[in-house]
Specification:
With 673 residues, the chain is an alpha+beta fold. It is built from 24 helices and 22 strands. Helix 1 runs antiparallel to helix 2 and helix 16 crosses helix 17. The structure holds zinc ion. Keywords: DNA damage, DNA repair, DNA replication, Ligase, Magnesium, Manganese, Metal-binding, NAD, Zinc.
């Protein structure tokens, strides 16, 4: 045979096999027997073996061609793969619809309703119609490139079909394992004394992340495509429905249960139907996805930082199981919040073994009346932390123990505080090891002490190497210690030491904000420093002294009092002072604090002052409790004399009214401050 004819023959064979693959795997309508199919495949393999020069990666023979890998290289998605907002309640879904109607100024919004397959999201890139990359979702921006494994999945085309093939497209879909395949796999694993997978989702994820694509090839994974980014394409669909139709034409498997609806009530109806019928499906679903149909409207709505505004995941109610509370412990979060957690007799809920469930806070725990030893219903919805739904109080024996929240922090043993109107107990110890990372990052942040170069990564390094255990340790660092850190040169070490040094003389308001007192943001810190002239005054102030300040309510004042009542915090403040951290109080323009010298006295000005305008000087007097007169009278206690005084000076001298020069006046203003 002439070589050109052979090339044609190979090409023809591949097209025939692709068509059969499509009919078999995608639309379940095979037109040949398995024997006939195998014969075609053998013929192609033979020809490719004799003529390796015609072998291409998109050939149907090349699905399992990769070698075991060392790891998965990163893959940058052309557009972030965002996660969807979740709803469980019908009202939340109606609210979603209302919001879209409002934003789009439409009375009715059209949606596509899709099943939410319980698998893992994947992004597939095709260039000139050929699969070039397949990557997991990862953090949404960058995923893991698992192309050799992706190629083994028969429902993923290696080459796109049809006549409207885009130059570059990224197709998104869900990789999953069917229930039968899952059961077969677990039987095999059990027979080989390997641990079975807990659920099909984990099995799919584990199979896709195999370093050896030959293992993935045995795992019967499937794909449903549900979205696409057309990067270079002459064709662009206008609706989600058109897009899904287009994906089918390109050779993808799209879930057959998609529905186009013209109202949210129809979507809710479909949800109710699947809630009872989901068990009949051959794969697991955990809800529905409701997507705005018109793509132009989508771009009008845009996305928040985490999720698109045009879609919502409408999940099924949490599945619940019965188990016992073995104990209750308290966790300290990174912001100091104490959360009671029920330790459970391990229980399998929807395929996941649950050993702990959150009790949220003291009020919730009391409202549900959860006691140690209780039988409880525990619920889990999707990736949400499992929670105790309710107690089966009929099963109580009388030996159950009521749990008391601790009065000290489990991580640092400092007394814990509960803020006014808050459900949570908090540890506000600045040195609490459970929180120190957050505290130091906040301390160094731009609006606080503004220590340039001290970001999250470096804080982690400093804590891991034990160079910094408390805030005050920052001011004990030296260049030699810093240079020993990874990725730290002498220059950046020097810069950091300088930045830390500069932070010793920041404004008091920044310092107060940097302390991270609950409810004391930069604005409140500013109000405090406008009112008080030193840190000491704030520490010693009583609740009444806070409450007379405009902008400070009982919640804030209680929080400040709590903070300074912790001995650990006062010790730390002393340490900081000893290490040279002396926040400065900016010169006051205004003060509402009465000052003895001015209190109740009347002042008169004459001439021009060099450091103040007349208005500023008068305000200073008034703010210190004094009064300002317009003319000489027996009421005037002092005449303040500037440059080129007027006739008032002579009159004052006649009446024996004491005189103040501008510099004497300034001295009086600044005394006590
Ligand atoms: Zn603590």
């Amino acid at each position: 045979m002439e070589s050109n004819t052979i090339r044609q023959e190979i090409k023809k064979l591949r097209e025939i096999i692709r068509q059969h693959d499509y009919r078999y795997y995608i639309i379940n309508q095979p037109t040949v027997t398995d024997d006939e199919y195998d014969a075609l495949m053998r013929k192609l393999q033979e020809l490719e073996k004799i003529h390796p020069e015609y072998l291409t990666p998109d050939s149907p023979t090349q699905r399992v061609a990769g070698k075991p890998q060392d790891g998965f290289p990163p893959f940058l998605h052309s557009q972030p793969l965002l996660s969807l907002n979740n709803a469980v309640l019908e009202d939340d879904v109606r609210e979603f619809d209302q919001r879209l109607q409002r934003l789009l100024k439409q009375n009715q919004v059209e949606y596509v309703v899709e099943l939410k397959i319980d698998g893992l999201a994947i992004n597939l890139r095709y260039e000139e119609g050929i699969l070039t990359h397949g990557a997991t979702r990862g953090d949404g921006t960058t995923g893991e490139d698992v192309t050799p494994n992706i190629r083994t999945i028969k429902t993923i085309p290696l080459r796109l079909l049809g006549d409207k093939i885009p130059e570059v497209i990224e197709v998104q879909g869900e990789i999953f394992m069917g229930k039968n395949a899952f059961n077969r796999l677990n039987q095999e694993r059990t027979a080989k004394s390997e641990p079975p997978f807990a659920n099909p989702r984990n099995a799919a994820a584990g199979s896709l992340r195999q370093l050896d694509p030959r293992v993935t090839a045995t795992r019967e994974l499937q794909l449903f495509a549900y979205g696409a980014t057309l990067i270079e394409s002459s064709y662009s669909p206008t609706t989600q429905w058109e897009l899904l139709t287009y994906l089918k034409k390109l050779g993808f498997k799209v879930n057959p249960h998609i529905q186009l609806v013209s109202s949210i009530e129809e979507a809710i109806h479909i949800h109710r139907k699947w809630e009872s019928e989901r068990k009949q499906l051959e794969y697991e679903i955990d809800g529905l996805v409701i997507k705005l149909n018109f793509l132009t409207d989508r771009s009008r709505l845009g996305t928040t930082s985490k999720s698109p505004r045009w879609a919502i995941a409408y999940k099924f109610e949490a599945t619940t199981e019965l188990t016992r509370v073995l104990d209750i412990e308290v966790n300290v979060g990174r912001t100091g919040t104490l959360t009671p957690v029920a330790l459970l007799e391990p229980v399998n809920i929807g395929g996941v073994i649950v050993k702990r469930a959150t009790l949220h806070n003291e009020d919730e725990m009391k409202r549900k009346d959860v006691r140690i030893g209780d039988w409880v219903l525990v619920g889990r919805a999707g990736d949400v932390i499992p929670e105790v739904v309710r107690v089966i109080s009929e099963q109580r024996t009388g030996s159950e123990i009521i749990f008391q929240m601790p009065s000290t922090c489990p991580a640092c043993h400092a007394p814990v505080k509960r803020e006014v109107g808050e459900a949570a107990w908090k540890c506000v110890n600045l040195n609490c090891p459970a929180q120190r990372k957050e505290k130091i990052i906040h301390w160094a942040s731009r609006d606080a002490m503004d220590i340039e170069g001290l970001g999250e990564k470096l804080v982690n390094q400093l804590i891991e190497t034990s160079l910094v255990q408390t805030l005050s340790d920052l001011y004990r660092l030296n260049i030699e210690e810093l240079i020993d850190l990874e990725r730290m040169g002498p220059k950046s070490a020097g810069n950091l030491i300088q930045a830390i040094d500069r932070s010793k003389r920041k404004e008091l308001a920044r310092f107060i904000y940097a302390l991270g007192i609950p409810f004391v943001g930069s604005h409140v810190a500013q109000i405090l420093t406008n009112h008080f002239s030193s840190l000491e005054q704030i520490i010693e102030a009583s609740e009444d002294q806070f409450l007379i300040i405009d902008g400070i309510g009982p919640k804030v004042s209680q929080s400040i009092l709590n903070f300074f009542s912790i001995p650990e915090n006062l010790t730390l403040l002393k340490e900081l002072k000893a290490l040279g951290v002396h926040p400065i109080q900016k010169k006051k323009e205004k003060s509402v604090k009465p000052q003895e010298f001015f209190q109740g006295k009347t002042f008169l000005f004459t001439g021009t002052l060099s450091h103040f305008t007349r208005k500023e000087a008068e305000d200073l007097v008034v703010s210190r409790g004094g009064k300002v007169a317009k003319a000489i009278s027996s009421q005037v206690n002092y005449l303040i004399v500037g440059e080129q005084p007027g006739s008032k000076l002579q009159q004052a001298i006649k009446k024996n009214i004491p005189l103040l020069t501008e510099s004497e006046f300034e001295e009086k203003i600044q005394s006590d401050f």
